[in-house]
Specification:
It is a single chain. The protein contains seven helices and twelve strands. It has helices at residues 2-11, 15-26, 46-59, 134-144, 151-157, 226-235, 242-265, and strands at residues 36-37, 62-73, 76-87, 92-100, 103-111, 116-122, 125-131, 170-177, 180-189, 192-199, 205-213, 270-282. Strands 1-8-9-10-11-12-2-3-4-5-6-7 form a twelve-stranded antiparallel sheet. A hairpin with a 2-residue loop joins strand 2 and strand 3 (76-87).
Protein backbone atom coordinates (compact mmCIF):
# COMPACT_ATOMS: atom_id res chain seq x y z
CA UNK A 1 0.00 0.00 0.00
CA UNK A 2 2.75 2.43 0.90
CA UNK A 3 4.53 1.80 -2.39
CA UNK A 4 1.29 2.61 -4.24
CA UNK A 5 0.85 5.93 -2.47
CA UNK A 6 4.51 6.91 -2.73
CA UNK A 7 4.49 6.25 -6.45
CA UNK A 8 1.22 8.16 -6.84
CA UNK A 9 2.69 11.35 -5.41
CA UNK A 10 5.32 11.78 -8.11
CA UNK A 11 4.13 9.97 -11.23
CA UNK A 12 1.87 12.94 -11.90
CA UNK A 13 4.89 15.23 -12.29
CA UNK A 14 5.61 14.10 -15.83
CA UNK A 15 4.70 11.35 -18.24
CA UNK A 16 8.28 10.17 -18.60
CA UNK A 17 8.55 9.41 -14.91
CA UNK A 18 5.16 7.74 -14.98
CA UNK A 19 6.40 5.41 -17.68
CA UNK A 20 9.61 4.79 -15.75
CA UNK A 21 7.62 3.78 -12.69
CA UNK A 22 5.59 1.33 -14.74
CA UNK A 23 8.74 -0.25 -16.09
CA UNK A 24 10.30 -0.38 -12.64
CA UNK A 25 7.25 -2.37 -11.58
CA UNK A 26 7.00 -4.56 -14.65
CA UNK A 27 10.13 -4.38 -16.82
CA UNK A 28 9.85 -6.29 -20.00
CA UNK A 29 9.47 -6.40 -23.71
CA UNK A 30 6.87 -6.79 -26.43
CA UNK A 31 6.13 -5.30 -29.85
CA UNK A 32 3.14 -3.68 -31.60
CA UNK A 33 1.37 -2.14 -34.52
CA UNK A 34 0.01 1.23 -35.60
CA UNK A 35 -2.18 2.68 -38.33
CA UNK A 36 -2.52 3.74 -41.96
CA UNK A 37 -2.93 7.27 -43.29
CA UNK A 38 -5.83 8.53 -45.42
CA UNK A 39 -6.75 11.98 -46.68
CA UNK A 40 -8.31 14.76 -44.67
CA UNK A 41 -11.59 15.53 -46.40
CA UNK A 42 -13.82 17.57 -44.11
CA UNK A 43 -13.81 21.06 -42.69
CA UNK A 44 -14.24 20.42 -38.96
CA UNK A 45 -11.75 22.40 -36.90
CA UNK A 46 -9.82 20.84 -34.00
CA UNK A 47 -11.97 22.82 -31.57
CA UNK A 48 -15.16 21.43 -33.13
CA UNK A 49 -13.82 17.88 -33.03
CA UNK A 50 -12.83 18.24 -29.37
CA UNK A 51 -16.29 19.58 -28.52
CA UNK A 52 -17.88 16.56 -30.22
CA UNK A 53 -15.66 14.25 -28.17
CA UNK A 54 -16.56 15.93 -24.89
CA UNK A 55 -20.28 15.93 -25.72
CA UNK A 56 -20.19 12.29 -26.76
CA UNK A 57 -18.60 11.01 -23.55
CA UNK A 58 -20.94 13.20 -21.49
CA UNK A 59 -23.95 11.60 -23.23
CA UNK A 60 -22.97 8.00 -22.52
CA UNK A 61 -24.69 5.93 -19.84
CA UNK A 62 -21.91 3.34 -19.84
CA UNK A 63 -18.62 2.60 -21.56
CA UNK A 64 -16.36 -0.44 -21.83
CA UNK A 65 -13.34 -1.44 -23.88
CA UNK A 66 -10.20 -3.54 -23.91
CA UNK A 67 -6.85 -2.61 -25.34
CA UNK A 68 -3.09 -2.47 -25.14
CA UNK A 69 -0.35 0.03 -24.47
CA UNK A 70 3.16 -0.22 -25.83
CA UNK A 71 5.97 1.79 -24.24
CA UNK A 72 9.43 2.38 -25.68
CA UNK A 73 12.13 4.11 -23.63
CA UNK A 74 15.64 3.87 -25.03
CA UNK A 75 16.25 0.19 -25.63
CA UNK A 76 13.43 -0.86 -23.29
CA UNK A 77 10.05 -2.03 -24.58
CA UNK A 78 7.10 -2.90 -22.35
CA UNK A 79 3.51 -3.96 -23.01
CA UNK A 80 0.32 -3.56 -21.00
CA UNK A 81 -3.14 -4.97 -21.70
CA UNK A 82 -6.17 -3.37 -20.08
CA UNK A 83 -9.93 -3.61 -19.54
CA UNK A 84 -11.99 -0.46 -18.78
CA UNK A 85 -15.61 -0.36 -17.56
CA UNK A 86 -17.39 2.87 -16.62
CA UNK A 87 -20.93 3.59 -15.41
CA UNK A 88 -22.81 6.85 -15.10
CA UNK A 89 -23.72 6.19 -11.44
CA UNK A 90 -20.02 6.58 -10.62
CA UNK A 91 -19.08 2.93 -10.77
CA UNK A 92 -15.90 1.98 -12.61
CA UNK A 93 -13.31 -0.75 -12.99
CA UNK A 94 -9.93 -0.44 -14.69
CA UNK A 95 -7.76 -3.56 -14.79
CA UNK A 96 -4.33 -3.95 -16.37
CA UNK A 97 -1.49 -6.44 -16.75
CA UNK A 98 2.09 -5.45 -17.56
CA UNK A 99 3.79 -8.46 -19.08
CA UNK A 100 7.38 -9.53 -19.54
CA UNK A 101 9.11 -12.81 -20.30
CA UNK A 102 8.09 -14.90 -17.32
CA UNK A 103 6.89 -11.91 -15.29
CA UNK A 104 3.51 -10.19 -14.97
CA UNK A 105 2.47 -7.31 -12.73
CA UNK A 106 -1.29 -6.83 -12.50
CA UNK A 107 -3.29 -3.94 -11.14
CA UNK A 108 -6.84 -2.70 -10.73
CA UNK A 109 -8.77 0.38 -9.66
CA UNK A 110 -12.51 0.10 -9.01
CA UNK A 111 -15.67 1.32 -7.33
CA UNK A 112 -18.70 -0.97 -7.31
CA UNK A 113 -20.69 0.94 -4.72
CA UNK A 114 -18.79 0.19 -1.52
CA UNK A 115 -15.61 2.26 -1.78
CA UNK A 116 -12.75 3.15 -4.12
CA UNK A 117 -9.98 0.57 -4.19
CA UNK A 118 -6.52 0.20 -5.71
CA UNK A 119 -4.60 -3.06 -6.05
CA UNK A 120 -1.17 -4.06 -7.35
CA UNK A 121 -0.13 -7.71 -7.65
CA UNK A 122 3.27 -8.96 -8.75
CA UNK A 123 5.46 -12.03 -8.34
CA UNK A 124 5.55 -12.69 -4.61
CA UNK A 125 3.78 -9.46 -3.66
CA UNK A 126 0.25 -8.13 -3.22
CA UNK A 127 -0.75 -4.57 -2.28
CA UNK A 128 -4.34 -3.51 -1.72
CA UNK A 129 -5.72 -0.23 -0.42
CA UNK A 130 -9.04 1.50 0.11
CA UNK A 131 -8.77 5.03 -1.25
CA UNK A 132 -10.69 8.20 -0.38
CA UNK A 133 -11.99 9.43 -3.74
CA UNK A 134 -12.40 8.32 -7.35
CA UNK A 135 -10.06 11.04 -8.62
CA UNK A 136 -7.35 10.07 -6.15
CA UNK A 137 -7.70 6.42 -7.14
CA UNK A 138 -7.57 7.07 -10.87
CA UNK A 139 -4.62 9.46 -10.49
CA UNK A 140 -2.67 6.74 -8.71
CA UNK A 141 -3.76 4.08 -11.19
CA UNK A 142 -2.76 6.24 -14.17
CA UNK A 143 0.94 6.12 -13.41
CA UNK A 144 0.92 2.54 -12.20
CA UNK A 145 -0.93 1.36 -15.30
CA UNK A 146 1.15 3.26 -17.85
CA UNK A 147 -1.54 6.00 -18.09
CA UNK A 148 -4.44 3.77 -19.21
CA UNK A 149 -6.59 4.95 -16.28
CA UNK A 150 -6.24 8.59 -17.31
CA UNK A 151 -7.82 9.69 -20.58
CA UNK A 152 -11.03 7.69 -20.97
CA UNK A 153 -12.19 7.73 -17.32
CA UNK A 154 -11.49 11.46 -16.96
CA UNK A 155 -13.41 12.19 -20.16
CA UNK A 156 -16.33 9.99 -19.14
CA UNK A 157 -16.60 11.38 -15.61
CA UNK A 158 -15.52 14.90 -16.64
CA UNK A 159 -12.90 14.88 -13.89
CA UNK A 160 -10.56 17.80 -13.44
CA UNK A 161 -8.00 16.07 -15.68
CA UNK A 162 -10.28 15.90 -18.73
CA UNK A 163 -9.48 19.46 -19.80
CA UNK A 164 -6.31 18.11 -21.43
CA UNK A 165 -8.47 18.10 -24.57
CA UNK A 166 -9.26 21.80 -24.26
CA UNK A 167 -5.83 23.13 -25.21
CA UNK A 168 -4.78 23.99 -28.76
CA UNK A 169 -4.47 21.13 -31.24
CA UNK A 170 -3.31 20.84 -34.81
CA UNK A 171 -5.28 18.70 -37.24
CA UNK A 172 -3.31 16.16 -39.24
CA UNK A 173 -4.32 13.89 -42.13
CA UNK A 174 -7.00 11.37 -41.23
CA UNK A 175 -5.93 7.80 -40.44
CA UNK A 176 -7.52 4.44 -39.81
CA UNK A 177 -7.23 2.63 -36.50
CA UNK A 178 -8.46 -0.95 -36.66
CA UNK A 179 -10.65 -0.12 -39.66
CA UNK A 180 -12.14 3.01 -38.06
CA UNK A 181 -11.68 6.30 -39.92
CA UNK A 182 -10.22 8.76 -37.43
CA UNK A 183 -9.44 12.42 -37.13
CA UNK A 184 -5.86 12.94 -35.95
CA UNK A 185 -5.15 15.79 -33.54
CA UNK A 186 -1.71 16.66 -32.17
CA UNK A 187 -0.65 18.92 -29.34
CA UNK A 188 2.92 20.06 -28.64
CA UNK A 189 3.95 21.44 -25.27
CA UNK A 190 7.74 21.06 -25.21
CA UNK A 191 9.09 18.52 -24.41
CA UNK A 192 5.75 16.70 -24.66
CA UNK A 193 3.76 15.73 -27.74
CA UNK A 194 0.35 14.04 -27.61
CA UNK A 195 -1.61 12.63 -30.55
CA UNK A 196 -5.27 11.55 -30.44
CA UNK A 197 -7.04 9.37 -33.01
CA UNK A 198 -10.76 10.17 -32.77
CA UNK A 199 -13.44 8.22 -34.62
CA UNK A 200 -15.14 10.32 -37.30
CA UNK A 201 -18.49 8.60 -36.84
CA UNK A 202 -18.50 7.82 -33.10
CA UNK A 203 -16.44 10.78 -31.69
CA UNK A 204 -14.62 8.35 -29.38
CA UNK A 205 -10.90 8.12 -28.68
CA UNK A 206 -9.44 5.06 -30.41
CA UNK A 207 -5.74 5.67 -29.86
CA UNK A 208 -3.41 7.99 -27.94
CA UNK A 209 0.30 8.46 -28.52
CA UNK A 210 2.37 10.26 -25.88
CA UNK A 211 5.94 11.30 -26.59
CA UNK A 212 8.63 12.92 -24.47
CA UNK A 213 11.92 14.11 -25.99
CA UNK A 214 15.11 14.75 -24.04
CA UNK A 215 13.84 13.00 -20.94
CA UNK A 216 16.96 13.94 -18.99
CA UNK A 217 16.16 17.62 -19.57
CA UNK A 218 12.59 17.34 -18.29
CA UNK A 219 11.67 19.07 -15.02
CA UNK A 220 13.62 17.74 -12.07
CA UNK A 221 11.96 15.75 -9.36
CA UNK A 222 10.89 18.01 -6.50
CA UNK A 223 11.07 16.37 -3.06
CA UNK A 224 7.79 16.23 -1.18
CA UNK A 225 7.33 18.71 1.62
CA UNK A 226 6.67 17.43 5.12
CA UNK A 227 3.12 18.76 4.93
CA UNK A 228 2.47 16.83 1.69
CA UNK A 229 3.87 13.66 3.22
CA UNK A 230 1.67 14.09 6.29
CA UNK A 231 -1.38 14.54 4.06
CA UNK A 232 -0.48 11.39 2.13
CA UNK A 233 -0.05 9.39 5.35
CA UNK A 234 -3.45 10.58 6.53
CA UNK A 235 -5.05 9.42 3.28
CA UNK A 236 -3.40 6.04 3.82
CA UNK A 237 -4.84 5.88 7.34
CA UNK A 238 -1.27 5.55 8.61
CA UNK A 239 0.10 7.11 11.83
CA UNK A 240 1.50 10.57 11.15
CA UNK A 241 4.74 10.51 13.15
CA UNK A 242 8.16 12.09 12.60
CA UNK A 243 9.55 8.61 11.95
CA UNK A 244 6.89 7.86 9.32
CA UNK A 245 7.48 11.19 7.57
CA UNK A 246 11.25 10.61 7.49
CA UNK A 247 10.82 7.08 6.13
CA UNK A 248 8.48 8.13 3.33
CA UNK A 249 10.83 10.96 2.33
CA UNK A 250 13.74 8.51 2.23
CA UNK A 251 11.73 5.98 0.23
CA UNK A 252 10.75 8.63 -2.31
CA UNK A 253 14.39 9.62 -2.76
CA UNK A 254 15.34 5.99 -3.33
CA UNK A 255 12.56 5.63 -5.90
CA UNK A 256 13.91 8.66 -7.77
CA UNK A 257 17.43 7.21 -7.74
CA UNK A 258 16.14 3.95 -9.19
CA UNK A 259 14.40 5.84 -11.99
CA UNK A 260 17.53 7.87 -12.75
CA UNK A 261 19.68 4.73 -12.74
CA UNK A 262 17.26 3.07 -15.15
CA UNK A 263 17.46 6.06 -17.48
CA UNK A 264 21.26 5.99 -17.47
CA UNK A 265 21.51 2.21 -17.82
CA UNK A 266 19.30 2.08 -20.89
CA UNK A 267 20.37 5.39 -22.48
CA UNK A 268 16.87 6.81 -22.16
CA UNK A 269 16.61 10.18 -23.92
CA UNK A 270 12.98 9.88 -24.97
CA UNK A 271 9.82 7.93 -24.22
CA UNK A 272 6.93 6.90 -26.45
CA UNK A 273 3.65 5.36 -25.33
CA UNK A 274 0.95 4.11 -27.74
CA UNK A 275 -2.42 3.33 -26.13
CA UNK A 276 -4.97 1.60 -28.37
CA UNK A 277 -8.63 1.10 -27.41
CA UNK A 278 -10.48 -1.86 -28.93
CA UNK A 279 -13.84 -3.63 -28.55
CA UNK A 280 -15.50 -0.38 -27.53
CA UNK A 281 -19.09 -0.77 -26.29
CA UNK A 282 -21.33 2.09 -25.14
CA UNK A 283 -24.73 2.48 -23.47
CA UNK A 284 -24.87 -1.18 -22.52
CA UNK A 285 -26.83 -2.21 -19.43
CA UNK A 286 -24.32 -3.24 -16.77
CA UNK A 287 -24.80 -4.61 -13.27
CA UNK A 288 -22.79 -4.14 -10.07
CA UNK A 289 -21.06 -7.45 -10.77
CA UNK A 290 -19.51 -5.94 -13.92
CA UNK A 291 -17.53 -3.51 -11.76
CA UNK A 292 -16.43 -5.82 -8.96
CA UNK A 293 -12.77 -6.76 -9.08
CA UNK A 294 -12.11 -10.23 -7.73
CA UNK A 295 -9.19 -10.29 -5.32
CA UNK A 296 -6.72 -13.19 -5.70
Amino acid sequence: VKEIMKTMTWIKLKFAMGVTTAILLAGGAVTVALSGATTNNDDLSPTEIVKQVQDKYASLSSYSDTGKTIVEMGNIKASTTFDIRLGRSGVYRVEWAQMTAGRTVKGAAWFAGDGDFLQIEGPGSFKYSKMQTRQETLNAASGLSGMVAQAIPTLFFNESGSNFLSTSFLKQNDEKIGGTECYVLTRNITPYKTTFWIGQKDSLVHQIKREVDNTDNSPAFTPMSDSSIKETLQKMNEPVTPEAVAKMKSDMEQLQKKAQKLQQLHSIQSAISIETHENISVNKTMSKADFVHELP
